[in-house]
Amino acid sequence: MEVIITKEAASASNLAARRIARLVRIKPAAVLGLATGSSPLGLYKELIRMHREEGLDFSRVHTFNLDEYIGLPPDHPASYHSFMEENFFRGVNIPHGNIHLPDGLASDVPSHCEAYEQAIRDAGGIDLQILGIGSDGHIGFNEPGSSLASRTRIKTLTPGTREDNARFFRKPEDVPYHVITMGIGTIMESHSVALLAFGEGKSVAVGGAVEGAISASNPSSVLQMHPDAKIYLDEPAASRLERIDYYQWVFQNKPAWQTDR
Ligand code: F6R
User: Fold this and answer.
1) Ligand 1 centre from 256 Cα, in Å?
2) 229-243: burial string, b at 16+ Cβ within 10 Å, e else
3) Range of the domain at 58
4) Of 1, 37, 30, whose CA–CA distance to 206 is shortest?
5) What total number of domains does the chain contain?
6) Rounded to 5, what percent of the chain is helix, strand, coil?
7) Could you please report the per-residue DSSP string of 76-100?
8) Which of 9, 60, 126, 236 could form a disulfide with 198 if both were Cys (CB 3.0 to 4.6 A apart)?
9) pLDDT tens for residues 207-224?
10) Would residue 143 show up in a list of annotated catalytic residues for this protein?
């Protein structure tokens, strides 16, 4: 696990964007795992800028999103289909057929989840998974207590996550109770992971993820077992870490050949 701490969220987002750009340049048909929410917004903005101004080409990229609300049609303003279209897809050139999100209206959820897993395998697996983190440590919508070996499936949101996400809905009671989410086992099979967390509100979850015991009580802590996980933080999100000086020391003293910070 590598912890990268910058003063402002924008710098961390730009570093994560550079890592993705480097992957896409080396492997034009890269498979990206995508997240919604506030955390990756700066990253998507920077990737769109790189596409427009630097010709970063996404025409062979495939994407798989982590999750979607059950019961929301794709064109619902708070669906993750809409979110991705608005904040990323419409700014880059990923062919429509290469984009995958769970279907919140699937009539047979278990079969849909199996098919989603199969589609990831058929694409060759996820090269790089972008993650945010919930204030309770969830990744995807794997809430505390989720099996660390779980696969794509239905989950029930905690009351806290419903409250956190109410800002995307007209009324708090409109937030669905259920989601389809990639499992923790699914996420752990990604070849690499970039988790972004910004703001003091994430500091407890981040502390558990990076320096806590590995436990289903903080699902993000499983990333300690991932061979290539980078955690991008601003200073407030990193404020409860004990080894902060060491993480900064490592970052400042990177060997020159490690260009993909
Ligand atoms: C979103 C997702 C969630 C969010 C998390 C943090 O696709 O899977 O795990 O990453 O809830 O959300 P924000 O970034 O809005 O704080």
Assistant:
1) 33
2) bbbbbbbbbbbbbee
3) 2-258
4) 1
5) 1
6) 40, 20, 40
7) STTSHHHHHHHHTGGGS---GGGEE
8) 9
9) 999 999 999 999 999 999
10) yes
**Band of the pLDDT at 260, cuts 50, 70, 90?**
low
Residue 259 has pLDDT above 70, yes or no: no
Give dist(CA 33, CA 35) in Å, integer. 7
Compute the average pLDDT of residues 231-237: 98
CATH of the domain at 118: 3.40.50.1360
CB-based burial, 150-161: b 16+ in 10 Å, e otherwise = bbbbbbebbeeb
CA of 253 to the centre of ligand 1 (A): 31
Pocket test for ligand 1, best of 44, 133, 150 (most atoms within 8 A of CB): 133
Residue 181 sits at the vertex; the CA angle it makes with 175 and 187, to the nearest 5 degrees, is 140
The enclosing H or E element of 1 equals none
Tell me how many degrees the CA angle 196-94-129 measures, rounded to the nearest 5: 25
User: Rounded CA gap, 151 and 66, in Å?
Assistant: 11
Distance in angstroms (rounded) separating the CA atoms of residues 164 and 104: 20
Distance CA 220, CA 237 (A): 14
The first and second tokens of residue 223, run together, are: 């990333």
d(CA 90, CA 27): 22
Which residue is catalytic, options 136, 164, 189, 234?
136
Look at ligand 1, atom 11, and give the residue with the nearest C-alpha: 134
pLDDT value of residue 14: 98
